[in-house]
Design goal:
The structure holds two protein chains of two kinds.
Chain A lengths: L2 H7 L2 H31 L6 E7 L2 H9 L1 H8 L1 E7 L2 H13 L7 E4 L4 H4 L6 H7 L11 H7 L1 E2 L2 E2 L1 E5 L3 E6 H4 L2 H11 L9 H10 L13 E4 L6 H13 L16 H14 L11 H9 L3 E7 L2 H5 L11 E4 L4 E3 L2 E3 L2 E2 L4 E4 L7 H11 L2 H9 L10 H4 L2 H4 L5 H13 L1 E2 L7 H16 L5 H19 L1 H17 L9
Parallel strand pairs in A: 1-2, 1-3, 8-9, 13-15
Antiparallel strand pairs in A: 3-14, 4-5, 6-14, 7-9, 7-10, 11-12
Helix pairs in contact in A: 12-13, 12-21, 21-22
Chain B lengths: L1 H5 L12 H5 L5 H32 L18 H7 L2 H33 L5 H8 L1 H4 L2 H11 L6 H10 L11 H29 L3 H9 L4 H29 L3 H6 L11 H11 L3 H33 L1
Helix pairs in contact in B: 4-15, 5-10, 5-12, 5-14, 10-12, 12-15, 14-15
The chains are: A alpha/beta, B mainly alpha.
Chain lengths: ~500, ~325
């Protein structure tokens, strides 16, 4: 547009209007510019106070270090993560709590300890409200928010690492036409990722002892965790839940040795025959290695394995891994299939912290939607998604080519996620359950015998902790589970 | 009375008539207290670090103290001790501990003794061999357990690789996968750890035997076998006994190797009394019950040690 054209279009009055409008915009922009620093100034500055964080693994400490500068810039807080190995975390933190003390302002813990820890934790909502902080609770995936962060109706923690077990399968094993034909001939149904644990067993058997990967070596069917104690229990829990089991009946009588438990454990024992050597001692890392080195066709493990499988420096199966929910079971003619909320890690503030206000500010920042997403996208952190905005984000979907499918599986699994036992003493109940699995797999006991013994030990734990109190607390957990559609499904 | 007669020796000689009177006079209080004051710091440390914890845990063992529940000291009498005798896992752990440590102790002793006999004579490079063979004693048990856990991995472990090279075919033994092999593997690591200790202690014993005894035996026409049986073995009795006691007491505490290599598995087959007591008392905070379990272990060790010393002493008397 020339000056003449401009003169034709804009008369003097219009020009004055434009100038007035521009001036108004300028004033508004100036107000915004001044308002912004004013709001920033309203943020609390802690003048270099330290927030000591108990991180349960080095890769979690990496996550805390990622945003250390931001915490310092925004709140004047120094974040000091200290690594406590996850296997020691429960007793290290609990020992301090028992003496009414804490060396940490933020503790990371596995949600099955929430009942034990709750009396020593600060309720989060009043702290956050007093500080004027928004924890964006509506954005937290409901299963993590309702079952893993809240105890007796009070929010004590924010989910930090949203763990769950899913199924992984090597697509190379499933794609060969000759294999597909042989499988159909042998088992009478098409070769495809398993819908049920019985199919998982068939597939594990089929893929054991021959080179379906094309690297000149014999491979195995399936890798799962069988290590005694809590580790093995996570794998048992996925089977048990999908066979329709729950931990106790309404009267707090153990159901671990119910027909559901027996079938679940029998399935694990059967599949153990098709697992790589050394599986009796397999936990997260060993199961992950078996999958990403191409040793096995199938595996169930935590969601963080997906990123490792797509890491060219660590994986031989990049671009070859498919994902699905854990297999289920046909009960009453319908497929019962649930997710397994295996562990996870949450952040909470001990009552005994000397810097609760600083801690809640740091907690708010580390669990903020954008920060949470960036932490989860960093392969060095091992942190899984806890927020709906994360699993629906474009960045998460673009992380690797098959990430959208992975995210679908994560969402579907969390929506019907089956929780760990959350009553006091959960750690001990779980160890006993995991030990029963290990005994059955090692054949030091039969399946039924191992579970009957475990049930007796569960009763002993319940009696020691006080049957009536435990019954009430289990009822609270079971009611929460029922509200999410997770009830006992008798197998008869 | 010998104690009292010793007192005048440290005092100036009194007149003859007063000597008996002075001999029975007690030294001043300050002087009597001095020896106690001198050892008081050490006694204080011992009381604080040994006797007090022992008395405290004995008292706790008679309570229902649950640290995680904050129950406090609720008197339970002998319930914890009675329950322990009916606890199948504790009893199984006791049997399994014996199954692992007794063969390990015997094997380590024999290997150590053989090495000590080999190293007793002079040969080139003896000092180097001795130093290298003593390395396992210097390795932290946790580090050793982690190394062995890796070496015993079926697919990528050094042990199976070595066997594959020797046999010329792919060996894939799951060393920690079955109860028998897992117990043998844990025991094997203990042999590796303890054999050098016995080698050192028995070598020191061998070096302390005077050559004159062997020369006298040879003059009397004793064969090498007779010298070994009637000179070497009797004179090694006490070093061997001390070594066996130290080894036994340490092995009863077997924990780190099991914790790292097998986590008590497979199927609880390598669960030791220390491992079970740790989980009960420290991991799950059943402090009263855990204390009772540890006292059973202590009593067991004490009884066996007393029996071992008694047997050795009787043999000594018989020889004398």
């Amino acid at each position: 547009m020339t000056a003449c054209e401009w003169n034709n279009v804009v008369d003097r009055r219009d020009f004055l209007r434009l100038v007035a409008g521009a001036s108004a915009l300028g004033v508004a922009a100036d107000w915004q510019a001044t308002a912004r620093p004013a709001r920033a100034a309203a943020k609390k500055n802690f003048g270099g106070k330290t927030v000591r964080v108990a991180a349960s693994a080095e890769y979690y400490a990496v996550a805390f270090r990622m945003f250390r500068e931001q915490v310092e810039q925004e709140y004047g807080l120094k974040v000091a993560p200290e690594v406590i190995p996850s296997q020691e975390a429960y007793q290290r933190v609990m020992l301090e709590f028992a003496s009414r003390a804490s060396s940490y302002d933020l503790v990371m813990f596995s949600p099955q300890w929430l009942a034990d820890f709750a009396p020593h934790l600060e309720p989060l909502k009043p702290l956050a409200e007093a500080a004027g902080l928004n924890l964006h609770l509506d954005d937290v995936l409901p299963a993590f928010r309702d079952m893993y962060s809240t105890w007796a109706g009070t929010l004590y923690a924010m989910p930090f690492d949203g763990d769950l077990h899913i199924l992984y399968y090597n697509t190379a094993a499933f794609s060969q036409p000759e294999s597909q034909k042989r499988f159909r001939d042998k088992y009478g149904y098409p070769l495809a990722p398993p819908q049920t644990w019985e199919q998982y067993r068939d597939l594990a058997e089929f893929f054991t002892g021959w080179d379906w990967f094309g690297d000149g070596q014999k491979h195995y069917g399936a890798a799962d965790g069988y290590r005694p104690g809590r580790t093995g229990f996570w794998w048992f829990m996925g089977r048990f839940a999908n066979y329709g089991g729950v931990y106790f009946d309404e009267e707090m009588r153990p159901l671990i040795n119910s027909p559901n438990g027996v079938k679940a454990l029998q399935n694990m024992v059967d599949i153990f025959a098709f697992a790589p050597p050394g599986s009796t001692n397999f936990g997260y890392t060993e199961v992950e290695n078996a999958l990403v080195k191409g040793d096995v066709a199938l595996s169930t493990n935590w969601t963080s394995v997906a990123r490792v499988a797509e890491d060219p420096n660590r994986s031989k199966v990049m671009g070859k891994i498919g994902y699905a929910m854990l297999p289920g079971t046909m009960i009453g003619g319908k497929l019962h299939r649930v997710g397994s909320l295996a562990s996870g890690w949450s952040l909470a503030i001990p009552k005994y912290s000397a810097n609760k206000e600083g801690a809640v500010h740091a907690l708010e920042l580390y669990t903020r939607p954008d920060v949470s997403l960036k932490i989860s996208l960093n392969p060095g952190t091992g942190v899984d998604y806890t927020r709906r905005s994360s699993v629906e984000s474009r960045d998460a979907g673009a992380a690797w080519p098959s990430a959208p499918k992975f995210l679908e599986v994560v969402k579907a699994s969390v929506d019907v996620g089956f929780p760990a036992p959350l009553v006091p003493g959960a750690e001990e109940y779980m160890k006993v359950g995991g030990d029963a699995l290990a005994a059955a797999v090692a054949k030091t006991k039969g399946v039924k015998q191992a579970l009957d013994d475990a049930a007796r030990e569960w009763d002993r734990i319940t009696d020691r902790l006080g049957r009536d109190a435990q019954k009430q607390l289990w009822k609270a957990q079971y009611d929460a589970m029922k509200r999410r559609g997770l009830t006992y499904k008798p197998l008869g | 009375m010998t104690g009292r007669t010793a007192v005048p020796l440290t005092l100036p000689s009194p007149p003859v008539g007063e000597r008996d009177h002075i001999a029975v006079r007690r030294p001043p209080a300050r002087r009597r207290l001095m020896p106690w004051l001198m050892v008081a710091p050490m006694l204080g440390v011992m009381l604080a670090t040994t006797l007090f914890p022992l008395a405290y845990s004995l008292a706790v063992s008679f309570t229902r103290y649950e640290l995680a529940r904050g129950t406090g000291w609720e008197w339970a009498g002998g319930v914890n001790y009675r329950d322990a005798l009916h606890d199948p896992r504790f009893l199984a752990a006791a049997v399994q501990t014996a199954q692992m440590i007794l063969p390990a102790l015997v094997a380590a002793f024999l290997v150590g003794f053989a090495l000590a006999l080999l190293l007793n004579g002079p040969f080139p490079g003896r000092a180097l061999f001795l130093s290298l063979l003593a390395v396992p004693v210097m390795v932290a048990p946790t580090a050793a357990a982690m190394s062995f856990a890796l070496m015993l991995t079926p697919k990528y472990g050094a042990v199976n690789d070595l066997l594959s090279m020797v046999t010329g075919q792919r060996v894939m033994i799951d060393w920690l996968g079955s109860p028998g092999l897992a117990r043998a593997s844990v025991a094997g690591v203990q042999v590796w750890r303890w054999a050098p200790f016995y080698m050192l202690i028995l070598l020191a014993g061998l070096q302390a035997i005077p050559d004159e005894l062997y020369e006298a035996g040879r003059v009397d026409g004793a064969s090498r076998r007779q010298l070994f049986r009637h000179v070497t073995l009797p004179l090694l009795r006490w070093p061997a006994l001390v070594g066996l006691l130290i080894g036994f007491i340490d092995l009863v505490k077997l924990f780190d190797t099991v914790y790292i290599m097998t986590a008590g598995g497979p199927g609880g087959s390598t669960e030791t009394v220390s491992f079970y007591t740790y989980f009960t008392g420290i991991r799950f905070f059943h402090v009263g019950y855990g204390a009772a379990l540890s006292f059973y272990v202590l009593i067991g060790v004490l009884l066996l040690c007393v029996a071992l010393v008694g047997v050795a002493a009787r043999r000594e008397d018989a020889l004398a």
